[in-house]
Amino acid sequence: MVYQLQHVSVRYQEQDALRDTHCTIEAGKWISVIGQTGAGKSTLVQVLKGLIPVIQGEYLIDYQAVSRDARGRLQVRPEIGYVFQYPEHQLFEITVARELAFAPRQQGWSTSHIQQKIAEILPQIGLSEDVLELAPFQLSGGQKRRVALASILMMDPQVLIVDEPTAGLDPIGRATLLQYLHQWQQQNNRTLILVSHHLDDVAQYSDEIILMHQGVLIGQYDPVTLLIEQSHLLEQHGLILPESIQLLQLIEQCYGQKIEVDSCREEDIFARILPIWHRKEQSYD
């Protein structure tokens, strides 16, 4: 499916949360949404899920307009899974096992099917079966985030929205979770929308990046265009470049040589930097 917003605006308490917003979410892509706090990132993805009303504009799915009621409310999209920024807003059952089983039970899954799915998902997101009989609010912040994610993945959504999913995780946990999300997205040809302020993660995984500032969608870019060719846009909007791209720029300045790259992944940037580094080092010997 292709999801589009055209001229969409949202207001909260007489304040513009989104203004005249345009974007396109194509199937099978990893799209990251970035911007400072208050930029409108969460509002944008909540509109895509159908959680909040819009005051103007159109929401199209596969190029067909989605109807809304007189108050601007859209139909909640069941094929879009949404993991909230704060897991406390999502978790409500008395045990983790019941939390993970809730949505499948509503769809008529058998107990054996539910247990099989839980056993499949838990180790992939870094949780053991020991947590199943605990109350979600007994868990650490990182564990609660993993449980919230697992509860959505139980239903295998066509589109997965994850709002700051790695907050509260240590570097190893963060890397492991993102690698799992990437594997899930690639193997199942799913669409993933990541809201994040970690631009190193954004550079590593994104097919496209949406930049937002104070409720305005500045643009939708491929990573090389935004993070390298137009990196000044990030500085203008208070964002810090990924460390690998900072290193790339430093090497270019030191050696007075433009280094052409076609990917923002860390390993691809290093693959372009190292040969130049070695040649320069040899020339000094």
TrEMBL record:
Spans through the membrane: none
Main localisation: membrane
Subcellular location: Cell membrane
GO terms, molecular function: ATP binding; ATP hydrolysis activity; ATPase-coupled transmembrane transporter activity; cobalt ion transmembrane transporter activity
Keywords from the UniProt entry: ATP-binding, Cell membrane, Membrane, Nucleotide-binding, Translocase, Transport
Cellular compartments per GO CC: ATP-binding cassette (ABC) transporter complex
SUPFAM superfamilies linked: P-loop containing nucleoside triphosphate hydrolases
Membrane topology: Peripheral membrane protein
Keyword Membrane tagged: yes
CDD domains: ABC_cobalt_CbiO_domain1 (cd03225)
InterPro entries in the cross-refs: AAA+_ATPase (IPR003593), ABC_transporter-like_ATP-bd (IPR003439), ABC_transporter-like_CS (IPR017871), ABC_transpr_CbiO/EcfA_su (IPR015856), ECF_ABC_transporter_ATP-bd (IPR050095), P-loop_NTPase (IPR027417)
Keyword Transport belongs to the record: yes
Domain ABC transporter: 3-239
Coiled-coil residue spans: none
Highest taxon listed in the record's lineage: Bacteria
UniProt cross-references to PANTHER family, sorted A to Z: ENERGY-COUPLING FACTOR TRANSPORTER ATP-BINDING PROTEIN ECFA2, HEAVY METAL TRANSPORTER
Similarity annotation: Belongs to the ABC transporter superfamily.
Name of the protein in question: ATP-binding cassette domain-containing protein
